[in-house]
């Protein structure tokens, strides 16, 4: 095996940024190839992708059907400005109508989850004028630009404060492992959801509420079964728009096309990205219910981008949906998800440093703790200061073992490509099993 040339690495480090991070000490692995659920570095070392990168490479790597669809579009029409109607835009819309939650029938196409949320907020405010306030949760991530970072509740928002968008009102999340209201489910009566009604009434000019149906990067927080239907009901009763941010939870990740299907609820607006193209090309989608679409018949839809509805990005959508269907991805995810969940629960039994394991479908978090009081190994303050937590160090060691797992300050996010099989799951779980011994040594109590 030949030595990895340092040239590419040096150029990348010298001339580009590692995002959300101090630059010092960055040691990027140079990836050159990927297939199935594995990617390979310059030396040919193989890594299991146990998190679909940032929970986005839903079909794994090298799917021929998706690649051909994109290539065919490139041969035919590479770009046309969005005021024209490329045929691929009709094909993508038809495919979306088959899978979107009931009622979502009008689409705005962008190139990221961030942009999908920016559009959702701007349109919510135009539609609900003069109401403008948006409710969002503390443990949330909605993107990195002006509105979306302001909606974001986690530490990533702190970097831009006080320059955040006015009109965001914060509400608590259903994080039962560390309840923000210090209550216990089910005795809590879902106080975190009921409180939203009070907030809306006190704030008065509320236009909408944005929620990740299952919180993603902030630790795969699966709400109690009553929570989402209750939030939906409260939004409806108070006549505010309910925006489901399904950037991470959409496209089969939870064993349904979209997470809102888990509770049979219909959002007014749904934002998504990542799995919509299985990440072969950049795409963001903001889906609206009919009434919102109709409002803009006589009112200016004051939004848009040069790369909006890009034909090459749109070409991925019908191909990806066909592949999800051909591979029976929803039932595969349910079966593999049960298996993965069972195996992760075994690790919880075996390792005292595992405080909580939670998830649904192929979307799981394992939260590590350092004592019997469930004290985390690291928190938002550490991330804000650019500190390396124990979980960061363990994730690095997993990479050395050939397993990539995306992590937060005190949790791993285990969300492999939806095409994963049992043997591949075992490989990832076994690597986690070994590495958790190191966390156990740090456990006091
Ligand atoms: N919303 C959620 C729930 C996300 O998880 C993310 C990214 O991880 C975003 C929005 C932002 O998407 P993007 O990184 O494509 O801009």
From TrEMBL:
Its cellular-component GO annotations read: cytosol
Keyword Transferase set for record: yes
For this protein, the record's InterPro entries field holds:
Aminotrans_3, PyrdxlP-dep_Trfase, PyrdxlP-dep_Trfase_major, PyrdxlP-dep_Trfase_small
Q: Name one Pfam family in it.
A: Aminotran_3
Q: Write down the SUPFAM superfamilies for this protein, in alphabetical order.
A: PLP-dependent transferases
What are the GO MF terms of this UniProt record?
A: pyridoxal phosphate binding; transaminase activity
Q: Which UniProt keywords apply?
A: Aminotransferase, Pyridoxal phosphate, Transferase
CDD domains assigned to the protein according to its UniProt record, in alphabetical order: OAT_like
User: Which Gene3D superfamilies does this entry report, sorted A to Z?
Assistant: Aspartate Aminotransferase, domain 1 (3.90.1150.10), Type I PLP-dependent aspartate aminotransferase-like (Major domain) (3.40.640.10)
- List, alphabetically, the PANTHER family matched: AMINOTRANSFERASE (PTHR43094), AMINOTRANSFERASE CLASS-III (PTHR43094:SF1)
Q: Which family does it belong to?
A: Belongs to the class-III pyridoxal-phosphate-dependent aminotransferase family.
Q: What is this protein called?
A: Aspartate aminotransferase family protein
Q: Which species?
A: Sulfolobus tengchongensis
């Amino acid at each position: 095996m030949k030595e990895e040339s340092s040239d590419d690495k040096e150029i990348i480090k010298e001339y580009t940024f590692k995002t959300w991070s101090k630059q010092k000490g960055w040691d990027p692995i140079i990836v050159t190839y990927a297939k199935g659920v594995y990617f390979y570095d310059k030396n040919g070392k193989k890594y299991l992708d146990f998190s679909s990168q940032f929970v986005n490479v839903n079909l794994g790597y090298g799917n021929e059907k998706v690649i051909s669809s994109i290539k065919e579009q490139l041969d035919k029409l590479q770009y046309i400005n969005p005021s024209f109607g490329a045929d691929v835009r009709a094909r993508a819309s038809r495919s979306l109508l088959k899978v979107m939650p009931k009622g979502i029938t009008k689409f705005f196409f962008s190139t990221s989850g961030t942009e999908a949320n920016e559009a959702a907020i701007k349109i919510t405010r135009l539609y609900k004028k003069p109401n403008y306030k948006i409710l969002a949760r503390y443990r949330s991530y909605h993107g990195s630009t002006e509105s979306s970072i302001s909606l974001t509740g986690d530490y990533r928002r702190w970097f831009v404060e006080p320059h955040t968008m006015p009109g965001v009102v914060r509400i608590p999340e259903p994080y039962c492992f560390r309840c923000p209201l210090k209550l216990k489910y089910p005795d809590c009566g879902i106080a975190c959801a009921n409180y939203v009604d009070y907030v809306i009434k006190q704030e008065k000019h509320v236009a909408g509420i944005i929620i990740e149906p299952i919180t993603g990067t902030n630790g795969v927080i699966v709400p109690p079964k009553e929570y989402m239907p209750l939030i939906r009901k409260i939004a409806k009763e108070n006549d505010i728009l309910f925006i489901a941010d399904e950037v991470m939870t959409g496209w089969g990740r939870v064993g349904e096309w979209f997470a809102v299907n888990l509770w049979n609820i219909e959002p007014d607006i749904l934002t998504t990205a990542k799995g919509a193209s299985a990440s072969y090309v950049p795409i963001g989608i903001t889906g609206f219910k009919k009434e919102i679409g109709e409002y803009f018949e006589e009112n200016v839809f004051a939004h848009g981008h040069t790369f909006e509805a890009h034909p090459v990005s749109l070409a991925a959508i019908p191909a990806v949906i066909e592949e999800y269907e051909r591979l029976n991805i929803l039932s595969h995810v349910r079966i593999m998800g049960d298996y993965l969940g069972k195996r992760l629960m075994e690790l919880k039994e075996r390792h005292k440093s595992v405080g909580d394991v939670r998830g649904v479908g192929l979307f799981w978090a394992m939260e590590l703790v350092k004592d019997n009081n469930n004290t985390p190994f690291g928190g938002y303050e550490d991330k804000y200061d650019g500190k390396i937590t124990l979980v960061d160090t363990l994730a690095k060691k997993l990479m050395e073992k050939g397993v990539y797992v995306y992590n937060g300050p005190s949790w791993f996010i285990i969300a492999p490509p939806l095409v994963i099989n049992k043997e591949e799951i075992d490989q990832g779980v076994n690597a986690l099993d070994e590495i958790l011994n190191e966390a156990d040594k740090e456990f006091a109590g």
